[in-house]
Amino acid sequence: MRYWLFKSEPSVWGWDDQVAKGEAGEEWDGVRNYQARNFMREMALGDLGFFYHSQKEKAVVGVVEVCREAHPDSTTDDARWECVDIKAVEPLKTHITLDDIKADPHLAEMVLVKNSRLSVQPVTPEEWQIICTLGGIA
């Protein structure tokens, strides 16, 4: 299993929107960055990811699961763009802000810290465990 982080502006698509999609999940569409797209191509069913609210909150707010592997993005006719589907698994009991992450020396090399603009990014198993612990989930 691999771990990921999915960033979204909550005013466009937030955690509550993701939860409302239930078990069917929703396409993580509209990504127009080759590196982010390539990360989605690497994802497998059952991989887990953090759902991150960008913009004002800048915080990890929940955990999602990949429920459909990479497929053509339905929001474009351009065959270069693919996406995965994700479903909500559980909210973090405590939201973990970008400032919290930057303050933890064990998370200093996290992609979120080094390349904060990338909308889909990998998370190491160690980073995953630290954030889950800080967020109050097992």
Blueprint (SSEs and pairs):
Elements: E1 3-8, H1 15-20, E2 26-27, H2 34-42, E3 48-53, E4 59-72, E5 82-97, H3 98-103, H4 111-114, E6 120-123, H5 125-135
Parallel strand pairs: 1-3
Antiparallel strand pairs: 1-6, 2-5, 3-4, 4-5
Q: How many domains in all?
A: 1
What is Rg? 14 Å
Estimate percent helicity: 25-40%
Please give the number of β-strands: 6
| Main pleated sheet | 6 strands, mixed
Number of helices: 5
Q: What is the H-and-E element order?
A: EHEHEEEHHEH
Strand order of the largest sheet: 2-5-4-3-1-6
Q: What's the CATH H-level superfamily name? A: ph1033 like domains
Overall 3D form: globular
Average pLDDT number: 97
CATH topology: ph1033 like fold
- CATH secondary-structure class: Alpha Beta
CA(first)-CA(last) distance: 16 Å
Unreliable stretches: none
Oligomer: single chain
Structural class: alpha+beta
CATH architecture verdict: Roll
- Strand content range: 25-35%
What key attributes describe this structure?
138 residues; alpha+beta; ph1033 like fold; 6-stranded mixed β-sheet; 35% strand; globular
3D structure, described in words:
This protein has helices at 15-20, 34-42, 98-103, 111-114, 125-135; strands at residues 3-8, 26-27, 48-53, 59-72, 82-97, 120-123. With 138 residues, it is an alpha+beta fold. The chain has one domain (3-135): ph1033 like fold (Roll), CATH 3.10.590.10. It has a 6-stranded mixed beta sheet. The chain is globular and about 40 Å long. The two termini are 16 Å apart. The model has no long low-confidence stretch (mean pLDDT 97).
Précis, in short:
With 138 residues, this protein is α+β, with helices and mostly antiparallel strands. Helix content is 26%, strand content 35%. The protein has one domain: Roll (ph1033 like fold).
